[in-house]
Structure formats: structure tokens, C-alpha cells
Design goal:
Blueprint (H helix, E strand, L loop, with lengths): L1 E14 L23 H9 L6 E3 L1 H13 L3 H10 L5 H16 L7 E11 L3 E2 L1 H11 L1 E6 L4 H15 L18 E12 L10 E9 L5 E21 L4 E7 L6 E7 L5 H7 L2 H9 L2 E10 L1 E8 L1 H7 L15 E2 L2 H5 L1 E14 L23 E4 L4 E7 L3 E8 L6 E3 L17 E2 L7 H4 L41 H17 L8 E3 L1 H12 L4 H10 L7 H14 L8 E12 L6 H11 L2 E5 L4 H15 L19 E12 L10 E8 L2 E19 L4 E7 L4 E8 L5 H8 L4 H6 L2 E10 L1 E8 H6 L24 E14 L3 E14 L24 E6 L5 E2 L4 E6 L2 E5 L1 E13 L4 E7 L4 E8 L5 H7 L5 H6 L2 E10 L1 E8 L1 H4 L30 E8 L3 E6 L13 E3 L4 E7 L5 E7 L54 E3 L27 E4 L3 E3 L4 E3 L3 E4 L2
Parallel strand pairs: 3-5, 11-15, 12-18, 21-22, 28-43
Antiparallel strand pairs: 1-6, 1-14, 2-17, 3-6, 4-13, 6-19, 7-8, 8-9, 8-11, 9-10, 10-16, 12-14, 16-17, 20-45, 21-23, 23-31, 24-25, 25-26, 25-28, 26-27, 27-44, 29-30, 30-31, 32-42, 32-46, 33-36, 34-35, 36-37, 36-39, 37-38, 38-48, 40-41, 41-42, 44-45, 47-50, 48-49
Helix pairs in contact: 2-4, 4-5, 12-18, 13-15
Length: about 1150
């Protein structure tokens, strides 16, 4: 592994008059008593608490200050000696001369360390021979005369030197404008390129959490997904009790350079570590290092840092250097007047570091790669929360020291000032200005800060792509804050998975392009208003943004959909607006779609449908490179059409690891609902990111294309189905799924397939949870598209095609929204009631019995149970003192306690604080995943008291399932299609649910009338996609979904969906994730008999029993009065009150329901 480090440091000095100029008050204070022996660490202590990511080069700063020390006199000379522990000038020259010789003697190590300094002096000044000789002989500094009166030529000389020294990494440091009135510029650059002593293959890298915000109890509140490197081998390692931290040494080749990582023991311990650390403590830790077998988890690092040192150095005691006190008399030959005007105005340093497996090309780079060594006791070093690091050379010389806290902060600047770097400024600079020509406008900005030059500019947002420049709009908000890139990917990803979930009932192959659909919706949104626009924004999850924020999100998508083609990947998106020649587009809309969407606007005669269809089809064929030749026909074009809004998308990608065509089996079984279908099955054995995700009961494999795209293969387990998986997939972020994948070698088999798909998206977009309805109805508001016309979207035809073979994938999509005049809705009046008849009853039961792992003791006297803040009822309580997993979630205002049963089940008790109530907690609970809550539990010894209770609960689930949050409506209405169950027009009249639960000192007994058990699956060595599966093609960097689909039968070359209501499968669905509440005190008893089950002799301490032979008796007299019933078991599942399986992480809500196949 390679490590490159460049730390440019440039010193600014100016010829100043005696006038004093105000500077910002520096907020830092000095807290360490060992200042003269710990300058490097004092810098870290001063800067560390105020910056998330930090990188300093103490040696670079000290070298430049030492050079100025040699030219100093009087008071400033004494300040140098006291602040930096310089004994005298002779000793200083000897020390740094030896140090540079040692540092630069690295040819045998295989590492490259270049340290160079140069002083550019105006050719009208004469440098003293003694200083010139000292600069070269002792500090390797070249003194070079330049003509600053010709700043263009001077800047070229300086930049050429910097580019040469940094091996081309920094081609430019100054511009001609920066050198106006300059008479001297001093620079220092450090470039380090190191090779790790133990390079490791990249195979161990993975994605994981990096904690950025812990809570007061040192538990994770917020984290970010980052790339990790991992290895297990012998390292020098030590755990320091005083600092409460671990230290790890990673050596480069030659053993002369090392990187040290200091990791605090607690998640939030970084600032405490900075306060405690000192030169003494670091030397103590290094002395106690021992060689241990360590498993190292290290995040890749990539960030830049810029800071100013003036105020810090003043605080440390170096003051006269920055005042006009005739302190630099030993540099140039001149009179006292000029000497008094030589003053250093600023010292600026810019650094950068990158850590990955291959090495870097930035300012400062560190890289670690890890392997695997089994069979020995090992220490764990998991750098998954903020830490310190430093790179050390010979003689304990600290080349770089830094802090890593935020993985997504790629550039930082010192807090407490407004200094910010320009991207072209790859090195820091110091300049000297003559006071008589001093221009106050040059040195002050509108905040009164000093100085103002090319480095001191306000924070500017990144420039937009010229094609998609969103900077001019009459109704934009001037105080606009650009949306967060991570939020953009998350919001758009929700639309992608929710859209795919609406196709879960499809029995044919499905292929849709969310990217194409979102682009088309965005162009409609530009001209929509009122509720019509709000529904589209809510579906896209962008309703909280203003117009500019919405457009920035869309333009970010468009920018990613127009990647430059390479030899391996091609992605292109085109937009078209086909307007009627009899109607006029709104001028602002025409300008918007051309300017921001790069749309091709054409005028067509829709009264001639055949000619119009030919022109649109030719445009689509050109845009998709001939993959899709026809998107509309003369029959689908309404002669009254106002406008057709179109998007076409084309993708071509080659596999990163190609399938060997010789390994393809042309006649292998692909299991469908109707049996085996012979297909051509491709075969490969290679490393892929993969895992079995129990939450969606599927195997997931990331199959990368070359460049940055991937196909995500989602293969349901044998017990599951595509339909069930897609319904559950809608509740998961794509990023969360990707983070669960691990890189390992697998045998992968997937079929070759090629098919086309056509669908009218109108029906899909109207469904829950998208609810885009207004734009397709009589109340549509599209007044911003067509002048003086009331319009609605009549249809949104979406046509796609995909081909997958051993080489890669070719896919294309076209989306066309047809806008026509509004029409009055048809009104139907029902003049008689429908009298329902009972035809069939489905019944299913579940029984659970569990014994506590630790038995409770009954408290002799009843204790108070508060049903309301003012009401207390006596209740039998049970108590136990034991170690339990507990946590307190501040945002929920609730305490969580896991009470385990014997074997593998637990009860999760959720106790609201007195300030809140159960209703409020449960309302917010769906926003937290069970994994997150369980993962936050910590073992704590407590005394736990809970009441003994017996609960009976009955409810008709119809009204709960019909709510928008669940959306099961049609099955209960006149449009229900249950033709697969019984002949005739029937609907579900009610869905009655009855439960009972008993909790006492021994454990719990619970039963319900709807249930099924779910068994998690183990990850096999081989993964074969030989049954229906889903897939997603997405951008690995931005997580934009390009294509997603379902393969039900790869042998079919063409199949399509009508977009209408599909036939329901022959089963009754009771829904998922229902949340409902029960009233009554914990001591309320049953109003009717409920005989418990009698377990068999061999029954275990827990039982889930749904088999016909062991079906438990449930008194249904309250549900079906005086009716003769024949129970029929159906595939209807249920989840129970606050119980969960802590192996599979299934959450049993007291009154939820879930369909299980």
C-alpha cells in the first residue's frame, strides 16, 4: 500500500507601517504546562476541539520558523527561543541540519520523503551572504531572486518550482494577482510517499457504521456508512488506562516511518483524549507498546484541512514577529526604515490526507490493508468512532498529526475565523508587502477580516453544470440552503422501492426505470400547481423543499444520468416535449424545460396521429440507440392531445467479472409457479458482496459492472416469494441493504434473459403509498404548461427492454405522459343496497408458552399501578434483581427492557416516562427499526418490577387495514376480486381478531386467532437464481436507481402488463404492521372462558404450535354467535404484544398482522 503526503506551508510577510489593524479575537487558550517540550501536541490540543477533521504538519511549520529565527534579532529572537525551545542559533542550525539529513536519507526504505524550502526575494533587494549560506547549508532552502514588478512571470517561476517538488501533484500555488506589491515569499513543502511494510489484498474491505454522534451514555445516536479496511496480524499495540485509549502502530517499509492511531475507548471520548494527551503521555505509550495479534478495522480516510497559525503562535508567545519592530534584520541588506516595515502578516498551512488500500495522490495519504489470521487469541482494534493519528519519521519527528471525526467532511478549515481556501490553492503562502503602497481595500473584506486575498473568500456553493444552471429564477429564495446529497439519495430511493412494491402482484416479468419516471414527473411538476403538485412532491419525498431545492434534486439526478461514455459503460438520458400545433406552451415552462432539462421541444399535429406517432417513435429510437423502436401508436394518440412529455433512457454496461460463456448451461431448470422451465443459466465463481437478509427473507448479491454501476440481485428464499419480498423491501433503504453485504467468494448462477415490458403507470401511481391521483383526474391543475386550457394527464405509458448475457447488460426505457383536455367524471348512483351473504370463514390460530430465563418473585402486598397521572389502582407486582439489557431512548421518552424467556425468545418491555404516555410512544415507534433499538441495549444490573396481568382483546381489523398507512382497501369493497377462492362476486365483510395473554412469575402464555411462524434461512455456499427473483441496477456512488425489475420466467422473450388491476391470488391477506391499542388495567380479567392449552409431556419450555393436530381451543362465541362453523386454516400470520425473536429480529406487536406464505 502506498502513502503519499504533501504538506505545503507558506509564510506571508508584509512591509507594514506603524498603523495597527484589528484582527479577529482568537478563541483558543493554552492549557498545557509542558509547552516548550510539546509544541507539536500543543498545536493539536489548541486546534483539535474546534475541528471535526484535522491535519497539521508540525515539522513543516517549525522548519520555516527556524529559517526566520536565523534572520531575527532582539526581542523576537528571544521569543523564538522560549516558544520553540530553540537554545541558540548555532544549536538550531546544527539540529535541523542533522534532522533534514536523517529525514531525507530514505532511499533504502523504499519510501519517498521530499522536504524543500524556497525563498523568493524581489531582485531589487540583496540577501545577506550569511543568511543565504545558512539557508542552503543548514535548511536546504534556495534563495531565488524574482522580479515581483512582473507578477505574471514571477508566478510562473514559483508555480514551476512547486510543481517540480510535488511531482506534479500541486501545479499551481499563486497567481499574478496574489503577487501584487509582494517583495518576498517563503515556501516549504513536504511530500511523503510511503509503502506499507505489510500490504494486504483489497478483499477484506467492507462497508460499515462510523459513529459520529454518541449519546450521554456513550451509545450510538448517529452514524455514517464508510468503507473499512480490515486485517489480522501482529502489530505493536497498547491499551493506556490513564488516557483511556488504545494505540496501534502501523509501519512502513524500512521501519523508519510509522503511522500511530490513538483510539479512545468510549465512542464520545475524542475531546477528553485531546485534553489529556501530551508529549509525555505519547512517549509513555510508545515505550509500552507490545507486539500482539490484533484484528484491525480501519476506515478509509480522505479529507483536506486548512488553517492559520498567527493567533496560535501569538498565544504561545511569538508576538514580535507579527509587529513592525525591526525584528528581521538578518535577512536582507537595507536601511532601518525598510527593516522596521518587514513584518509577517500571516502563516497559513494547507494539508490533505487519504487512506485506502492502493495509495493516494493527495497531500497526505495513509493506507492500511488487512488479512486474516485464525487460531490465536487476538485483540480487537475497531476504529469505528473518532480517533487521533500521527505519522512519525526518524528521531521521533512528527511529520503529520491529525484527528478523524467526520467521514463525509472532505475539507475543513480552522474554526474561529472565516478563512477558506480556493481549490486552486494547493499550498499555503506568505507574502511581504511594502507599507507605502498599502491598499486597505486589498486587505479587508466586508466583515473586516484580515487579510483578503485569493484564499480569503466567502464560502461559495459548487458551480452548477452550465446546461443545468439553476441560479436564475424569479421566485427563488435568496437564503436557499442546498439539500444534503445523502438526503437526496435517501428520498429518491424511497420512491424507487415504493414504486416497485406496487408491482408485487404482477405475475409477469417486470422492468421499470424509476430514473426515467422521476424525470418525467419532474417535468410535469414544473407546470403543476395546488394539490396536483403537492401529490407529486410527496411521492418523490421532496415536499419540504422550495422550488429551487426541488430543482436542484432533479438536476442532480439528470447530471448523473448523463455520464460521459467510456469503453465499458454508457448511460444517456434525453427529454422531449411534443406540443400540439394548435395550442401554445406557457413561455416560462418552455424556457424551464429547455434550460434545466435540456429538452427537445417540437410542435406536432396530433390530428394526424400516424404522423405524430412516427416522429415520436423516431425520437425514442434515436435516444435508445434503436433498442426501443416504438413507444406510441396512432391508436394510443388522442387527436385532442395538448402535449406529450417524454423521457428516454439508455444504459449499456459490461460486467466487472465476466461470465464465461463456456460455463453457461443451455438447458437448466428455472422454477416457476407452473413447474420447471428450461433456460440458459450463466455460471461464475468469484468474490461478490452478498448476504442473506432475514428482514426481507432474501439472498442479495451485488453484481458490479465496470465503472460505478451494479446490478443488485434479490433472490427470495424458498419459503418466500417475490411478492412478499417486494412488499417488505418498500420499508428498507437501499443504503441499509448494501451496508449488510459482505465480500466473499460464492458460486453464482443467473439466467440469461431478454424481455420487453409495457405498462400504463397511471394506475400504479394512484395506488398506496404513492397516491399521485389529482393529476390524472378532473381536478388536475396543469395551468403552468398549456396557455388558457384546463388539462389532465390521460396516461403515462412506460416501455422498457433489457438484455442480460455473459458480457453485461443493455437496457432502455421510454416514458410518455399524454396531457389532454379535462373531461367531466362519470357519476353512478346506486339505487338499492347490496345485501351481503356469509359464504366462507377463514380461521387460523397460534399458541405461545414461554418460561422466564430468570423467575420472578411475587411481591407480597399489591402495589400502585398508575393508569393516569392522577389514578392509582392496587396491582399484584412481581420483582427480580438481575442483569438485563436496557436502554433509554430520549427522543421516544421511553425505557426499553429486554426480559428473556428460556431458549431464544424475549419480551421487550417499553416503559414511557411520566411526561409521556403509551399512545405517544407507539405513534413514534414505527420510525425506529427494531435492530436499532436492540443494538442500543446495554447489560445493566437492575431491580425490575412488572405487573402480573391477563389481557383479552377482540377487534375487527377492517378499519385499521383500510387506513392509508397500510392501504388494504379493495378486498373489503364492491371491487374485490376473490375469484380464485369462490365463485360469484364476493368481498371480505370483516376480519375479526381475538387474542389472550397471561403473564406471571413463571412466564407467559399467549394465543391468537391469526398467526404463522417464520424460520430464518442460512446462507448457502451456492446461490442459484433458479426461481423468480428481483433485481435493481443502480449507481454505487449516488445510489440512483437506473432500472429495477422482476424475472418470473426468463424463457419468455416478451411480456407486458396492462397497468390495470391484476387478479388477486387465491388467498386472503390480512395486511402488515398494524398498530392498535387496548384499553383496561393490567388486572382486567376475561369476560368469558378461555381455557389454556394442555401441553404434551415432551413440550419444551416454549412452544409455537399451529399444526392441525395440536390446534388450541379458542372460545369464539363472542366472535360468531350461534353459528355453525367449519374452520378453514389460511395463510394468515400475526405478531404478538411486545414479544420478539432476538435471533431473527422479528417484532411481535400486540395487535399487528402479517401475511406469511
Amino acid at each position: 500500500m502506498l502513502v503519499n503526503t504533501i504538506a505545503p506551508l507558506v509564510l506571508f510577510a508584509a512591509l507594514c507601517s506603524t498603523q495597527q489593524f484589528a484582527t479577529d479575537k482568537f478563541p483558543f487558550s493554552i492549557s498545557d504546562d509542558e509547552l516548550m517540550n510539546s509544541f507539536d501536541w500543543q498545536l493539536l490540543k489548541e486546534f483539535g476541539p474546534y475541528n471535526k477533521n484535522l491535519l497539521l504538519s508540525p515539522i513543516s511549520l517549525k522548519l520555516v520558523l527556524s529559517l526566520l529565527y536565523q534572520g531575527s534579532s532582539s526581542i523576537v529572537e528571544k521569543e523564538f527561543e522560549s516558544t520553540l525551545n530553540f537554545r541558540n542559533k548555532d544549536e538550531n542550525r546544527r539540529k535541523y541540519s542533522q534532522l533534514l539529513s536523517t529525514l531525507l536519507d530514505n532511499e533504502k526504505s523504499g519510501n519517498l520523503l521530499t522536504i524543500g524550502s524556497s525563498m523568493f526575494v524581489d531582485d531589487n533587494l540583496h540577501v545577506l551572504p550569511k543568511f543565504n549560506r545558512t539557508a542552503w547549508q543548514n535548511f536546504r532552502t534556495i534563495v531565488e531572486p524574482v522580479d515581483f514588478d512582473k507578477p505574471e512571470e514571477a508566478s510562473k517561476v514559483i508555480n514551476r518550482w512547486v510543481e517540480l517538488l510535488t511531482r506534479g501533484k500541486v501545479p499551481k500555488i499563486v497567481s499574478a494577482d496574489d503577487l501584487q506589491q509582494t517583495i518576498m515569499l517563503v515556501t516549504n513543502i513536504i511530500y511523503f510517499k510511503g509503502i506499507w511494510k505489510h500490504p494486504f489484498p483489497k478483499i477484506n474491505s467492507y462497508r460499515g457504521h462510523f459513529v459520529t454522534v454518541p449519546d450521554n451514555n456513550d451509545r450510538m445516536i448517529m452514524s455514517k456508512y464508510v468503507d473499512y479496511m480490515k486485517t489480522t496480524r501482529n502489530f505493536w499495540y497498547y491499551e493506556d488506562q490513564d488516557l483511556e485509549a488504545k494505540i496501534l502502530r502501523l509501519d512502513y517499509k524500512g521501519n523508519s516511518h510509522s503511522m500511530y492511531i490513538i483510539l479512545p475507548n468510549s465512542l464520545g471520548g475524542i475531546n477528553s483524549l485531546i485534553k489529556k494527551i501530551s508529549l509525555t503521555s505519547v512517549l509513555n505509550m510508545k515505550f509500552k507498546l507490545q507486539e500482539e495479534l490484533v484484528e484491525v478495522h480501519m476506515p478509509k480516510i480522505n479529507f483536506k484541512f486548512s488553517t492559520k497559525f498567527v493567533n496560535i503562535l501569538k498565544k504561545l508567545g511569538l508576538k514580535q514577529l507579527f509587529q513592525n519592530t525591526n525584528s528581521l534584520t538578518g535577512i536582507v541588506e537595507t536601511n532601518n526604515t525598510i527593516r522596521r516595515q518587514l513584518v509577517v502578516s500571516n502563516i497559513i498551512q494547507k494539508t490533505g490526507i487519504q487512506v485506502d488500500e492502493k495509495g493516494t495522490e493527495a497531500y497526505s495519504v495513509t493506507e492500511i490493508i488487512v488479512g486474516n489470521k485464525m487460531g490465536e487469541n487476538k485483540m480487537i482494534f475497531n476504529a469505528s468512532h473518532p480517533f487521533l493519528f500521527f505519522i512519525e519519521g526518524p528521531n521521533n519527528t512528527v511529520l503529520f498529526v491529525g484527528k478523524y471525526e467526520d467521514p463525509y467532511e472532505d475539507e475543513g478549515a480552522e474554526s474561529g475565523n472565516r478563512w477558506n481556501t480556493n481549490e486552486e490553492a494547493d499550498d499555503a503562502t506568505s507574502q511581504v508587502y511594502p507599507a507605502p503602497q498599502y491598499n486597505t481595500q486589498r486587505f479587508s473584506n466586508n466583515q473586516g477580516n484580515l487579510p483578503t486575498n485569493r484564499f480569503d473568500v466567502p464560502n461559495q456553493p459548487p458551480q452548477q453544470n452550465p446546461v443545468f444552471d439553476s441560479s436564475i429564477s424569479s421566485n427563488m429564495d435568496d437564503s436557499y440552503d442546498p439539500p444534503n446529497a445523502e438526503d437526496i439519495a435517501y428520498r429518491f430511493n424511497l420512491f424507487d422501492v415504493e414504486l416497485l412494491s406496487t408491482f408485487s402482484d404482477s405475475k409477469t416479468n417486470v422492468l421499470i426505470s424509476p430514473a426515467s419516471i422521476k424525470t418525467t414527473l419532474a417535468m410535469i411538476l414544473e407546470g403543476a400547481g395546488g394539490k396536483c403538485a403537492l401529490e407529486i412532491q410527496e411521492a418523490l419525498r421532496i415536499q419540504s423543499l422550495n422550488q429551487r431545492g426541488v430543482r436542484d434534486i432533479v438536476l442532480n439526478l439528470l447530471s448523473n444520468l448523463n455520464e460521459k461514455a467510456t469503453t465499458n459503460t454508457y448511460l444517456e438520458s434525453r427529454n422531449g416535449i411534443f406540443a400540439s400545433n394548435r395550442h401554445k406552451l406557457v413561455d416560462a415552462y418552455r424556457e424551464t424545460v429547455i434550460r434545466y432539462y435540456n429538452a427537445n421541444v417540437r410542435s406536432l399535429d396530433f390530428s394526424n396521429p400516424e404522423a405524430a406517432a412516427n416522429e415520436i417513435n423516431q425520437w425514442a429510437s434515436d435516444a435508445t440507440h434503436g433498442v426501443i423502436k416504438e413507444v406510441v401508436s396512432s391508436q394510443t394518440i388522442n387527436p385532442e392531445t395538448y402535449v406529450i412529455i417524454s423521457n428516454a433512457l439508455y444504459f449499456k454496461g459490461k460486467w466487472k467479472s465476466r461470465f464465461d460463456q463456456r460455463m453457461t448451461n443451455p438447458n437448466k431448470c428455472f422454477r416457476t409457479a407452473n413447474g420447471c422451465v428450461p433456460v440458459s443459466m450463466m455460471h461464475i465463481s468469484d468474490n461478490f458482496y452478498n448476504n442473506y437478509i432475514s428482514r426481507i427473507s432474501s439472498y442479495v448479491v451485488d453484481i458490479p459492472y465496470q465503472d460505478k454501476f451494479s446490478m443488485l440481485l434479490i433472490l427470495p428464499s424458498i419459503e418466500s416469494s417475490v411478492r412478499a419480498v417486494l412488499r417488505d423491501f418498500a420499508t428498507h433503504r437501499l443504503n441499509d441493504i448494501l451496508a449488510m453485504l459482505n465480500n466473499s467468494e460464492i458460486v453464482l448462477e443467473i439466467p440469461k434473459f431478454s424481455f420487453e415490458y409495457t405498462v400504463d403507470l397511471a394506475m400504479r401511481l394512484k395506488q398506496e403509498p404513492l397516491n399521485v391521483r389529482e393529476v390524472f383526474g378532473a381536478n388536475a391543475n396543469l395551468s403552468g404548461i398549456i396557455q388558457n386550457a384546463n388539462a389532465m394527464v390521460n396516461s403515462m405509458l412506460h416501455k422498457t427492454k433489457i438484455e442480460v448475457d455473459e458480457q453485461g447488460t443493455v437496457a432502455a426505457a421510454a416514458t410518455n405522459a399524454m396531457i389532454i383536455p379535462l373531461m367531466q367524471p362519470l357519476t353512478i348512483t346506486a339505487d338499492q343496497l347490496i345485501e351481503p351473504e356469509l359464504r366462507l370463514i377463514f380461521l387460523n390460530t397460534l399458541y405461545f408458552k414461554g418460561k422466564w430465563k430468570t423467575v420472578f418473585q411475587q411481591i407480597p402486598e399489591p402495589k400502585c399501578f398508575q393508569t393516569t397521572p392522577d389514578t392509582c389502582i392496587p396491582t399484584d407486582m412481581m420483582s427480580v434483581t438481575q442483569t438485563f439489557n436496557i436502554s433509554y431512548v430520549t427522543s421516544l421518552q421511553a425505557q426499553f427492557v429486554e426480559v428473556p424467556y428460556q431458549e431464544k425468545y424475549s419480551m421487550l418491555v417499553i416503559i414511557p416516562t411520566p411526561e409521556t404516555n403509551v399512545k405517544q410512544v407507539l405513534r413514534n415507534l414505527p420510525f425506529y427499526s427494531l435492530d436499532k433499538i436492540i443494538g442500543g441495549l446495554n447489560e445493566t444490573k437492575i431491580n425490575l418490577e412488572i405487573p402480573k396481568f391477563t389481557l383479552d382483546y377482540s377487534v375487527d381489523l377492517v378499519k385499521y387495514l383500510s387506513r392509508n398507512s397500510i392501504g388494504i382497501k379493495e378486498i373489503f369493497g364492491t371491487n374485490a376480486n376473490l375469484s380464485g377462492i369462490i365463485h360469484g362476486n364476493v368481498s371480505v365483510n370483516n376480519l375479526l381478531h381475538k387474542t389472550r395473554m397471561e403473564v406471571d412469575e413463571q412466564g407467559s402464555i399467549a394465543a391468537a386467532s391469526t398467526s404463522a411462524a417464520i424460520v430464518p434461512f442460512a446462507l448457502p455456499v451456492q446461490i442459484k437464481a433458479n426461481r423468480p427473483f428481483a433485481f435493481i441496477i443502480f449507481d454505487r456512488e449516488t445510489k440512483n436507481v437506473i432500472f429495477e425489475g422482476i424475472v418470473q420466467n426468463p424463457a419468455k422473450q416478451g411480456s407486458g402488463g396492462s397497468g390495470g388491476r391484476a387478479n388477486r391470488p387465491p388467498s386472503v391477506s390480512s395486511g402488515a404492521n398494524l398498530v392498535q391499542g387496548a384499553s383496561g388495567s393490567p388486572t382486567s380479567g376475561a369476560s368469558e372462558a378461555y381455557p389454556p392449552a394442555t401441553p404434551s409431556k415432551n413440550e419444551p419450555d416454549y412452544a409455537i404450535n399451529t399444526s392441525p393436530s395440536n390446534r388450541q381451543q379458542i372460545n369464539l362465541s363472542g366472535m360468531f354467535k350461534n353459528q355453525r362453523l367449519t374452520p378453514v386454516r389460511a395463510a394468515i400470520g400475526s405478531r404478538f404484544a411486545y414479544n420478539y425473536n432476538y435471533e431473527s429480529k422479528y417484532f411481535y406487536t400486540y395487535n399487528g398482522a402479517k401475511l406469511v406464505h
